[in-house]
């Protein structure tokens, strides 16, 4: 189970493989849950077979201290019936579509503890049989969930204590308060169960760190790539990001794309008249206007004062309306150092046609831009 401690914005989650990594971890959890369930079944079957073999051996020797029917009832029928009930509940839970994966984890873990409780209670004269509780705790570590392991540990310790202190299933069992040796074994058993729990918690801690590290590395890789594709001056995507986007679009079928190429009118004159610093300020203000209206498109700085906008899944009329809004807002931009400057932009647009070459698509938009610049502050659609 993964607890993603990193805050991801929708763009990061969509662009990275993090969701795929988390899905793979979820599949591993699902596989382990099924194994956990099957292992519980095999444990019950194995315990039943051992009981049957022991009963044959005991009946044929003078070790039997009670009648055969009582022995079968006490050591085979009752414990096997209780364990089968646990397995039946587990089967219902595993097959249910309404029960969440997390609840199934808790249920299967606790049912295995219940099976361990039954087996330990029946054979409590063998003090070492408390290790079956340790197995129930250990199996929860693969979920890498502190709460599941903590719940299984608490249930195991309670079951172990209740069985030792309050239940006398075997008449030959020594009460722990009447036997210093038995009390010592009980305390050792508690210590070992707690030690198993601690080891599992440490395992979970490092396993979660490893899992989170793989997600962190994927996120850092994406952020580094993203940083390399960001224009430092304007903060929008750069030319490399634009070319990568074109490669993704190339060959796409059934999706609507519109390319708009925009640049500032008379930009060379601005540089020549007021200097390159003022020209850079114009580009920065222009990029802000583009970012303010970028709900329906992605902005790229192609070079100099030229920007590219890629619209997706909208019609040409809506895209043209957005471009007109960009022109209107740019006209209202007030640059303090250039109070007499009226910024305008020309825009060329082209619709992507299925299987169109990217160079052809860009060329169409560029030709439309050329036609718009002949007029200035205009929009032309190829």
Question: What does the model show?
Answer:
With 382 residues, the chain is an alpha+beta fold. The protein folds into 2 domains: 212 residues, no CATH class; 143 residues, Alpha-Beta Plaits. 64% of the residues lie in helices and 8% in strands. The protein contains 12 helices and 5 strands. The protein has a 5-stranded mixed sheet, with helices on both faces. Strand 2 and strand 3 form a beta hairpin. The N terminus is likely disordered.
Question: What is the secondary structure topology, with strand pairs?
Answer:
Elements: H1 10-15, H2 18-59, H3 68-95, H4 101-122, H5 131-138, H6 146-166, H7 180-228, H8 239-249, E1 257-264, H9 267-274, H10 276-292, E2 297-303, E3 306-312, H11 316-331, E4 345-351, H12 358-373, E5 379-381
List keywords for this structure.
Alpha-Beta Plaits, 382 residues, 5 strands
Q: What would you say about this model in short?
A:
With 382 residues, the chain is an alpha+beta fold.
What is the approximate shape? Answer: rod-shaped
In sequence order, what are the helices and strands, one letter per element?
A: HHHHHHHHEHHEEHEHE
Main-sheet strand order equals 2-3-1-4-5
Structural class based on helices, strands and sheet pairing:
alpha+beta
How does the major sheet shape up? Answer: 5 strands, mixed
Counted by DSSP, the helix tally is 12
What does the average pLDDT come to?
A: 89
- Taking all Cα atoms into account, the compactness measure Rg is 36 Å
- Please report the total strand number as a whole number: 5
Tell me the fraction of residues in β-strands, as a range: 5-15%
Helix amount: 55-70%
Question: What's the number of domains?
Answer: 2
Instruction: List low-pLDDT spans.
Output: 1-5
Distance between the termini: 53 Å
């Amino acid at each position: 189970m993964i607890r993603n401690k990193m805050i991801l914005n929708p763009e990061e989650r969509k662009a990275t493989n993090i969701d795929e990594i988390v899905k793979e971890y979820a599949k591993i959890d699902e596989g382990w849950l099924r194994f956990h369930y099957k292992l519980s079944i095999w444990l019950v079957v194995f315990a039943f077979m051992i009981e049957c073999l022991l009963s044959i051996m005991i009946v044929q020797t003078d070790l039997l201290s009670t009648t055969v029917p009582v022995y079968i009832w006490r050591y085979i029928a009752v414990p096997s019936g209780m364990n089968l009930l646990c397995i039946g509940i587990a089967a219902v839970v595993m097959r249910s579509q309404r029960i969440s994966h997390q609840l199934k984890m808790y249920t299967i873990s606790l049912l295995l503890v219940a099976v361990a409780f039954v087996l330990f209670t029946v054979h409590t004269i063998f003090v070492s049989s408390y290790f079956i509780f340790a197995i129930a705790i250990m199996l929860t570590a693969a979920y890498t969930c502190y709460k599941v392991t903590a719940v299984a540990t608490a249930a195991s310790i309670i079951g172990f204590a209740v069985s030792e202190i309050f239940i006398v299933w075997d008449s030959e069992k020594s009460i722990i308060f009447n036997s210093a040796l038995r009390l010592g074994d009980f305390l050792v058993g508690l210590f070992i169960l707690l030690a198993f729990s601690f080891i599992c918690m440490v395992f979970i801690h490092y396993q979660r760190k490893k899992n989170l590290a793989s997600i962190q590395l994927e996120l850092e890789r994406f952020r580094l790539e993203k940083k390399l594709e960001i224009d430092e001056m304007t903060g929008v995507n750069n030319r490399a990001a634009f070319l990568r986007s074109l490669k993704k679009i190339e060959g796409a079928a059934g999706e609507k794309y519109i390319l708009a190429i925009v640049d500032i009118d008379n930009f060379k004159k601005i540089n020549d008249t007021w200097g390159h610093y003022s020209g850079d300020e114009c580009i920065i203000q222009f990029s802000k206007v583009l970012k303010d209206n970028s709900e329906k498109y992605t902005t790229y700085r192609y070079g100099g004062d030229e920007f590219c906008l890629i619209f997706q899944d909208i019609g040409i009329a809506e895209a043209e309306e957005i471009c007109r809004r960009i022109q209107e807002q740019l006209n209202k931009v007030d640059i303090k150092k250039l109070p007499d400057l009226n910024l305008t932009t020309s825009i060329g647009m082209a619709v992507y046609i299925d299987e169109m070459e990217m160079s052809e698509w860009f060329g169409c938009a560029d030709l439309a831009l050329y036609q718009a610049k002949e007029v200035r502050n205009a929009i032309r659609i190829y």
